[in-house]
Design a protein that fits this description.
Blueprint: H1 5-13, E1 21-23, E2 26-28, E3 35-39, E4 46-51, H2 55-71, H3 79-95, H4 97-108, H5 112-133, E5 140-141, E6 148-156, E7 159-163, H6 169-182, E8 186-190, H7 197-209, E9 216-218, H8 223-232, E10 238-242, H9 245-257, E11 262-266, E12 272-275, H10 282-294, E13 306-310, H11 314-325, H12 346-362, E14 365-368, E15 372-373, E16 381-382, E17 385-388, H13 395-398, E18 405-411, H14 414-422, E19 426-427, E20 429-433, H15 437-446, E21 451-454, E22 470-471, E23 474-475, E24 488-496
Parallel strand pairs: 7-8, 7-10, 8-9, 10-11, 12-13, 12-20, 13-18, 17-18, 20-21
Antiparallel strand pairs: 1-2, 3-4, 5-6, 6-24, 11-23, 14-17, 15-16, 19-22
Helix pairs in contact: 3-5, 3-7, 4-5, 5-6, 10-11
Length: about 500
Amino acid sequence: MKLNHENIKEVKNKLIYPSELFINGKYQKSISEKSFENISPINGHKVNSVSFAQKEDIDLAVKKAREVFNKGIWSNLPPSERKKILLKFAQLLERDRLELSLLDTIDMGKTINDTFNADLPTSIDNIEWYAEIIDKLFDDISPSSSQYMGLITKEPIGVVAAIVPWNYPLWMAIWKIAPALITGNSVILKPAEQSPMSAIKIGAMLSEAGLPDGVFSVLAGDGPTTGKLLCLHNDIDCVAFTGSGEVGKLVLQYSGQSNMKRVQLECGGKSPNIIFADCANLDLAAEASAYAIFGNQGEVCSAGSRLIVQKEIENDFIKKVSEISKNMQPSDPLNPNSFAGAIVNTEQLEKIDRYVNIGKKEGAYLEVGGNITMKDTGGSYFEPTIFRNVSNDMKIAQEEIFGPVLSTISFSSFKEAIFIANDSQYGLAAGVWTKDINKAIKASREIKAGTVYINNYEEGVDSTIPLGGYKQSGIGRDNGPQALENYLQVKSTWIKIT
């Protein structure tokens, strides 16, 4: 299907807004009947009231998840059979692709172009990739003497709570549930309260694909209530979390306060994007640098939010990026031609505005943007913003803004560039632009980040590449075969042969 105004309007007019919890194969309201208002940042209007999961709902979902896990209905199913169900789920995602895309766009304000042409295809690819790999993995036999046999096997960990953010609502959920489900676990998904609808919808879709009741639940709610209760629950074996570093630290604390459940974290970033003067194509680098921070309204953990440019090319390069940003202004997210959409809510919009004012007070020069815009819509929109003359000790260079705000910092030498890049509590991603392959490899080795992009920034990354952070950007990895390790226990069986 090709995206256009007509099919967007047709599907939107028929859209049903999911609002209930999904537990044990069916939709139901919260036992307490509590709910919260779901507001779209496109226009500030209420979309629906969503059931708010409380302790009783969590206990019920965990109970059903544990029961079905212990019975082995899913956990002991042959990998080839689990594979068929996940592949069917991928087909259903394609069938409902535009509907799911619209739910995410309406929920958090990102463009329909992004949700339909990027988020959904990559989500489908992720499901298919994990489905296809699971029956091609083998256990091991240790190299022991002829008197013994050492079997090294992997088993599902049990009940997994997946707590995901609002910036890529369905995509980030799939990153967790695909490897967790395919390895035989039961999964309880808590979407961000700002973007719950696509997560709620896929509950019924997984059941339609053949997933047994109880294996997958969706509990909408906020972090301080629903998220905290999940993290503290003594019958949950693993929490897989993507979100801020501040909340990630709380997840670690909750694990220690409860049953020492395993924790996988993908947290914040303040990623450096280094442009050396010998970059072979500065026009391409400028376009990629602009997209790295202004794509998805800058609401990206791995956004290239620190542009570190060699002094010889600094002025010209920043002018190039500034000129490109003029074509990256926010507009109607439901228009398939829009590049950028709305900021997720008024709280995040105000946070971005505060940081812009902090940057001005710190002495950085506002090159482009810096304003809330499209106020007449009732929605939350912010201009692409570029600061120059930034020093790396400024707050706008050290703290994650999570919006379309770029800090540009100059450097003179390779050593200085690497020092600036590493001078951060974060280590999620980095970019390096140079035609010197030796310099590129040396930079990649010295930068403390989970992913280093050479002569691109997040271009063409797929399910095969593990993503995660150094330092306070996280623990463990999403994607690739490495993500499976989050959801598996390793068992050694030592056999004496007589």
